[in-house]
Every structure is written in structure tokens, then in C-alpha cells.
Write a structure and sequence with these properties.
Strand 11 and strand 12 form a beta hairpin. This protein folds into 2 domains: 169 residues, no CATH class; 215 residues, Rossmann fold (3-Layer(aba) Sandwich). The chain has 12 helices and 13 strands. A 7-stranded mixed sheet has the order 3-2-4-5-12-11-10, with helices on one face. A two-stranded antiparallel ribbon has the order 1-13. It is elongated, with a radius of gyration of 29 Å. The protein is of the alpha/beta class.
Length: 416
């Protein structure tokens, strides 16, 4: 039989086509880690919270598709890229947050991307194994999800005195005006929340917890009741704002609006604390010693003259021992406005949708606990730097895998 001539056009077309396919696969492999990183960034930008599970669904979909395209012959390369994706996410998290990422979400992401990539690679040849791997992916995704805050069985009574619209909608009347703010909906999961009109209410004496949030003006005898209640063993959180920026549909001067400045100066002076004027008119992010984040608007700080208080967050928070009771003072009340701590107003009970630790800290100061540890982007510059280094690391890892496993007809990872 005569051998085909090199001049045969059909033979000449095989070489360039194969090379184009090889180049396309190489580009696909190099782009996979960066593509996964980029599709997970919108969730980070929306709330500023770093969680490896933000990348779970896009990573699983992309790796499953890549495994299917590369096929079982390149299963080792697919798994290599899956390790690179998980490592790139971990590197981005560490650089953006400034500390080691949480181990469990990264481990679950690794299981998820490896299962998705291997399942996609085996889908055409070993259907049963592929389906088992993809089922493991689904289980890993459900295991990594943050559950909504559940209601505690034992909820202590929490009295709330405030001038802020936490239990009603401003500008509405009647039953239509009754509505809990998102922060109150969360507090009800841990406390039996009872709004009070006055410190003279008998309900205050039956409660051991008090949230005093930018209240309206009080007479001296009402302030004396609060002081005596604390000294007898009460626990209070006081939000005192020197310049409230809470949005309101009511006109300026309307008596239904919350006080624009704190009216608690006599009580604070009695406790040896002075509320300083605001240092800025805009939004600020404050990181506490444990990594928790508070976002304030035109916040201030406290100047302490007694030895029974200690300051935190550059003086924005003061923790005081008053008699037998404790008081946590915060130099801002806007921070419980959901615009400053909640990325998705429709899901206040989901910690993944928060943009600050405000409800968790408020609950902690009142003696209860909300589960979960959130990691926050330190700054926009830190996030940009983290994305650059994570992209570079992912591309280099994928390129090394292509050099080791993806080239040559005799590579051990090509064998079916």
C-alpha cells in the first residue's frame, strides 16, 4: 500500500489543528485558577467578608467542566489544578485578612474542587465513580455553609430604651408602623426583648440586661434609676452618639426623630466618662483586638477620668465596672443601622451576609454568644495586593502542572 504523500492537504491540516487544540488546552489550564478566583470576588466585595466557601459553587462548576474537557487521561493534572485553586484561595484569604485563614473552610473547598474535577474527568468512562464524587461535592458544600442564627431555648429578658426607630417605621402610623429593625430581629434570637418607654417602668427592675441606645432626654430621677439599677448588678450596653447620622424621612425638628446628639452627659459624667466630639463625619472601620470589626458613622471616643473603666478600639469602646454591675459604652449609635453591618437586608440572620461584627459584639457585650468566626478584608489595598499574588501563584502552579503532567504522549497521568 502506498504511503500518503506529505503533500496531501488532508495530512497537512492535522498538525496545525492538533497544535491549536494543545494550545487551547494549555491556555484553559493556565486560566482556571484565575477564573475561579475572579468569580468568587463579588461576594467578597459585597460584604468585605472572606470565606473560602464564597468560591465553592463557581469552583465546583468550573473544575467539573474542566475535568470533563481534559478527560480521564489527564486526571492527575485536573487534581493538581484543584489543589492550586484551594491554595490560591487560602493565599488570598491570608493576605487580605492579615492572618492565617480558617482551616476547615479551606479543607472543605479542597475536597469540593478535587471531587468536582475528578468527577468531571471520570464522567464519560466511569459513571458510578463520577456520580459518587459529585455527591461528595454536594455534601462538602452543605457542610461548609453557615447556618442562620437559631433561637436559643433560654432567653434572658433584655430591656431596651431608645429613641431610634428599632421597633417601628418612621413616618407611618398604626399597626403598619410596627416593625423590628434587623438588629432587633437578631437580638430576639438570644434575648426576650422588651422595649420600654421610660427607665421608671417596673419592667426594668425585672430585667438584668439593658440596651440604652441614643435615648430621648431623661429627667434626673430617671438617670438615677439607671445608675442605681447598674450598681445593684445590672449589665448595660450604652450607645451614645455625639452626632447621629441615622437616615430619617421625618423633617428636621420633628419630635419623633431620634436625638441628633447624646443626652446622657449627666450620667456619663457621674461614671467618670466624657464623650468627645466626633473626629470624622464619614464612615470608619474599627478592628478590635480579637479581629472583630465595627463600622461607625461620625463616631467618637471616650475620655476616661476614673480607674473603673478601660478603653478599647482607640477609645471608641469603654468597658466599666460600676458598683456590682458592668457597662459597655460605645461612642456611636449609627453602628446598629443595618446599612453599616448588613450586606443583604433580606437575610439578617445569615452571618455570611453581614458586613461587620456589630450584632455578634452587641450580643457578646450583653452576655450571650452568636456562633461563627468571621474574617474581614483589612483594606482595599490589602485586597488588591492579595488578588495579584493569588492570581500569580495560581497561574504558576497550573503552568508547573502542565509541564509535569500535561505534555508528552508517555506521561504516566495520560494512561486510562
Amino acid at each position: 500500500m502506498a504511503r500518503p504523500s506529505n503533500a496531501d492537504p488532508s495530512c497537512r491540516a492535522v498538525g496545525p489543528a492538533s497544535r491549536m487544540i494543545a494550545v487551547g488546552r494549555g491556555l484553559l489550564i493556565l486560566c482556571l485558577p484565575g477564573l475561579v478566583l475572579l468569580v468568587g470576588l463579588p461576594a467578597v466585595l459585597r460584604g468585605g467578608q472572606i470565606d473560602a466557601m464564597h468560591w465553592a459553587l463557581p469552583a465546583a462548576a468550573i473544575l467539573a467542566g474542566a475535568g470533563w474537557i481534559l478527560g480521564r487521561a489527564r486526571l492527575g493534572l485536573t487534581l493538581w489544578i484543584a489543589f492550586g485553586v484551594a491554595g490560591s484561595v487560602a493565599l488570598l484569604s491570608a493576605l487580605a485578612v492579615g492572618r492565617a485563614p480558617q482551616a476547615m473552610p479551606v479543607l472543605l473547598l479542597l475536597v469540593l474542587v478535587c471531587g468536582a474535577g475528578a468527577g468531571g474527568a471520570l464522567l464519560r468512562s466511569r459513571l458510578e465513580v463520577a456520580l459518587c464524587l459529585l455527591a461528595a461535592v454536594v455534601l462538602a458544600w452543605f457542610a461548609g455553609r453557615t447556618a442562620p442564627v437559631e433561637q436559643a431555648a433560654d432567653r434572658p429578658v433584655l430591656a431596651v430604651i431608645t429613641g431610634l426607630p428599632l421597633f417601628w417605621r418612621e413616618g407611618e402610623q398604626g399597626l403598619a408602623a410596627r416593625s423590628d429593625a434587623p438588629v432587633i430581629a437578631l437580638l430576639r434570637r438570644r434575648f426576650d426583648v422588651r422595649p420600654l418607654d421610660s427607665a421608671s417602668s417596673p419592667d426594668l427592675q425585672r430585667a438584668r440586661l439593658l440596651l440604652l441606645a441614643q435615648p430621648r432626654g431623661m429627667r434626673a430621677d430617671a438617670l438615677a434609676v439607671i445608675d442605681r439599677w447598674v450598681r445593684q448588678g445590672g449589665r448595660a450596653v450604652v450607645l451614645a452618639d455625639p452626632l447621629l447620622r441615622w437616615p430619617s424621612p421625618l423633617p428636621l425638628g420633628d419630635r419623633r426623630r431620634a436625638p441628633p446628639v447624646s443626652l446622657l452627659r449627666p450620667l456619663l459624667d457621674h461614671w467618670g466618662v466624657r464623650l468627645a466630639p466626633p473626629a470624622t463625619m464619614g464612615e470608619e472601620r474599627h478592628f478590635l483586638a480579637d479581629g472583630s470589626l465595627l463600622t461607625t458613622m461620625a463616631g467618637s471616643r471616650f475620655e476616661l477620668s476614673g480607674g473603673h473603666c478601660r478603653a478599647a478600639a482607640s477609645g471608641m469602646v469603654a468597658q466599666c465596672r460600676i458598683g456590682q454591675g458592668t457597662v459597655v459604652l460605645v461612642a456611636d449609635a449609627d453602628l446598629i443601622d443595618d446599612r453599616l453591618w448588613l450586606a443583604d437586608p433580606d437575610h439578617p440572620l445569615s452571618p455570611q451576609q453581614w458586613s461587620a461584627d456589630t450584632p455578634a459584639l452587641l450580643t457578646q457585650w450583653l452576655g450571650q454568644f452568636l456562633p461563627g468566626e468571621r474574617q474581614w478584608v483589612r483594606s482595599g489595598e490589602a485586597l488588591a495586593r492579595a488578588v495579584r499574588w493569588a492570581l500569580l501563584a495560581g497561574i504558576l502552579w497550573a503552568g508547573l502542572g502542565w509541564a509535569l503532567f500535561g505534555r508528552g504522549k508517555s506521561g504516566i497521568w495520560r494512561r486510562g
